[in-house]
Amino acid sequence: MSVPPAPATAPPDLRPRHRPARKFATLRVVMALILREMSSRYGRTPGGYLWGVLEPLAAILVLSIGFSLILRTPPLGTAFLLFYATGFLPFNLFNTVSQMVARSVTFSKPLLQYPAVTWIDAVLARFLLNSLTSVLVTLLLLGGVLVLTETRAVLDLAAILSAMALTMGLGLGVGVLNCALMGLFPVWELIWSVLTRPLFIASGVFFLYDDMPALAREILWYNPLIHLIGAMRSGFYPMYSAAYVSNLYVLAVAGGTLALGLLLMGRYHRDILNR
């Protein structure tokens, strides 16, 4: 009597099984990077976030006291503190965001070796954290100046918020472009530092664009920070029209630098990480 053959068994399925994508993966990574930077930058420093308020406050006080010894009244209004706060704080917002975004890949480089973490996550985390921190510091200091001093300011919230949003956008664009250039050419960090040292003087922090000679105005107009600081001041001084301000020009500079930075990072981010 013959034994029936055993039924053929199907070969095992050796194809790799893809894990289902985790929901909100990018948001989780960005939040983790934000918490990591908060603990490393502010958690180990005595005073923590207090220094983020004291540093710009000290700069505004030095400018106000120094120029009050020379001038009887500020170029706008009656309060030295408000005039220099509306100049320094937008400049500080741009400077902080652009510098921190430019170093985002370097700061998070060890974590970028993991597949779940991308250079875009690192850039977004630094942009969001430093933008929100600087905006809160700006609102806190400006609110304090308005409450504690006689400024006679009439607030135009639309102009103020628009100026701050454009400042953050410009900081992001310049920061992403510098992130790519510093990764490809490390000497660019030194070159950029030298090139931007005159920005504090040339951005209208302690003078009005309208008071400058015609030749100086023609040159300074191409500095987008001149437009942002003028727009910020127009939100506090209703008599100041700042007709030279062009939000479209600032948007073009911010969008152009961001597009070029994203293009370079998308093309060369692996080369930058492997350096």
Automatic annotation (TrEMBL):
GO MF, one example: ABC-type transporter activity
Annotated transmembrane regions: 49-71, 78-102, 122-148, 160-184, 190-209, 246-265
GO BP terms, alphabetized: lipopolysaccharide transport; polysaccharide transport
Domain of life: Bacteria
Keywords annotated in UniProt: Capsule biogenesis/degradation, Cell membrane, Membrane, Polysaccharide transport, Sugar transport, Transmembrane, Transmembrane helix, Transport
Domain ABC transmembrane type-2, residue spans: 47-268
Protein localization: Cell inner membrane; Cell membrane
Pfam families reported in the protein's UniProt record: ABC2_membrane (PF01061)
Membrane topology field: Multi-pass membrane protein
GO CC terms of this entry: ATP-binding cassette (ABC) transporter complex
Entry similarity comment: Belongs to the ABC-2 integral membrane protein family.
Protein name listed in UniProt: Transport permease protein
Organism: Pontibaca salina
